[in-house]
Amino acid sequence: MKTSSHSLTFYLFKLFATSFIIGNLLSPTFDFAFAQCNCLGYYEPNNLNARIAHHHETSICVGYAFSSAISNMGSPIEPRSTIFIDVLYARKYWEEWGFFEIISNPQTGCIAIWDNPPGNNIEHAAVIVGYDGGWRVNQVDGHGGPLEEGVLITDWNDQMPNFYLSQIKSTYGYTVTVKTSFNEGKIKADGIEYDSGRQFSWGKNSSHELAVKRRQYASSYWRVYRNWIDLQYPYNPLAIEPDSVASIEINMIKTFQANFIREFNIIFQNNFICVGNPGTIKVSNAPYSSPTSEFYVLDGSTIIGEAINQIYNSISYTFSHWSDSVNTYPNRVQTFPPNGHKTYTAHFTGKPVRVQNLHNVAPIGSPIQLVWDEHPNSNCTYQIWRRVKELYGTQGDPVLLAIKPHGTTSYTDIQYLRTSSYTEYLLSYDVRAYYTVESATADPWWYTLYGGDPLWKDPAARDSLSSQLPTTVGLANYPNPFNSSTAIIYQLPQDAFVKISIYDLRGCLVKTLLEGPRPAGVHTVRWNGVTEAGHSAASGVYILRLESPDYNIARKVLLAR
């Protein structure tokens, strides 16, 4: 290696000057702070056996070869003899930046590279200038001396190059990529529309204008523009919504990206069992008809849904929970963070509103005759309940007198007569709507009046009781839900062999409550929440079933311990 006789001052000046040239004129990612142009030699700190990059007082082989190739393609870099390129960074020109491509065979204008072993330091570089009895190169001798022109390619160390680099593939400039963050869609550069990911070769210090449509559709989502960024400095946006145009100046290889975020389509709806999705629902504190039209929510944002307890078609609906296709949510007012297109459903349990205008129309001294308005929901039947309090006595338990179908609006209780004052009995009646869809009854509401001695105490009137036998089979329980015990009331229009049982939702028998012949009329049996094996049944929904040769009726029972 030839050593220089120049003064230290001269070398420091050269180091500064050549570093500045490389950082600002040649390397697409160099700046003065890290341009390691080494006119004094270079070696790898971790490889003491690596060949030191040879140099000359005015050039090194790598610097000459690369600057010569670039100059031939129209680069403003002149003169070539002043260019120095550190061998470490020279490799980036084809490995990272794509200014050159590796080819196997020599051709005029290519750079010949001696790289042994491959991937280590570049041992030597020269420019191929033609063929004359062998490939000829221009080179700077690795051991000092002037530029050598037209020498045989094997002149250096009697070795052929390991590979060759083709000339720059387009007019000299920096490769600039312009894309969207979702790698699809369209971008505009200088007013012309291109597909995302378009690469341009733009000259140093050239100015350009980037633009993008604010909404673009790709992969099942609308995408909404947010900002333009230089990926090298992602936290310093070049333009921010609503400004979708970015002005840029090119000083190195760059990738510019228009950032978009996905837009989700969100629908809210109610779910009333066996009814559908009607009613009212709130979104962001505003009421809407269910199901709503689509709301548009950006990725990373939230939206608030509010379920409304409401009455629809004379059924009172109480919120249970929210769900989407994957998750459930417990809160009536729920903040949702969608991660895709979603339909959020508010689930409800329903029970009928109470029967209206219940009253007695019998005159004093006649059997109690109850009348009421027809329940508006055709899926409701009627349970006729009565409780009795004797004068100076205590209030008796409710007794189910009858189960009547929808369409019935009156009932006569011949067991008690109407009186004008509280001299014997205080009678309370409840015509309780029963919603067959959800096996739910209305809340109790008692109508009270005065009654006299029961008519059945009069032997002459006993035969008239037969007219009060039920005309249809019926099954109900009270209370429902229940905690420890529930009364199961069933009515038979005729004598029958009856089996009443409890099953779980899998269809497995939990408890047989009775099995045998029963006379026509209204009867009661109780279930205390115990299984056939004598264990306490778990909380949950069970199926109450009445079976006979002519009937098979089922109702839902909710045990809530």
Question: How do you describe this structure in short?
Answer:
With 561 residues, this protein is mostly beta strands. The chain is 7% helix and 43% strand.
Tell me the helix content: under 10%
Q: State the secondary-structure class.
A: mainly beta
Quantity of strands, as a count: 40
Structural domain tally: 5
Q: In whole angstroms, how far apart are the ends?
A: 94 Å
Question: Can you tell me the residue ranges where pLDDT is under 50 for at least 5 consecutive residues?
Answer: 1-59, 73-84, 455-463
Major β-sheet profile: 11 strands, mixed
Averaged pLDDT, please?
Answer: 81
- What proportion of the residues form beta strands (DSSP E)? 35-45%
Descriptive notes:
The structure is a single chain. The protein is mainly β and 561 residues long. The chain has 5 domains: 8-165, no CATH class; 174-262, no CATH class; 280-352; 359-468, Immunoglobulins (Immunoglobulin-like); 474-559, Immunoglobulin-like, CATH 2.60.40.1930. Helices cover 7% and strands 43% of the residues. The chain is built from 4 helices and 40 strands. The strands form 8 sheets. Strands 7, 10, 12, 13, 14, 16, 19, 21, 22, 23 and 25 form an 11-stranded mixed sheet that branches. It has a 6-stranded antiparallel sheet with strand order 1-6-2-3-4-5, covered by helices on one side. Strands 28, 29, 31, 32 and 33 form a 5-stranded antiparallel sheet that branches. A hairpin with a 3-residue loop joins strand 3 and strand 4. Mean pLDDT is 81; it is low at 1-59, 73-84 and 455-463.
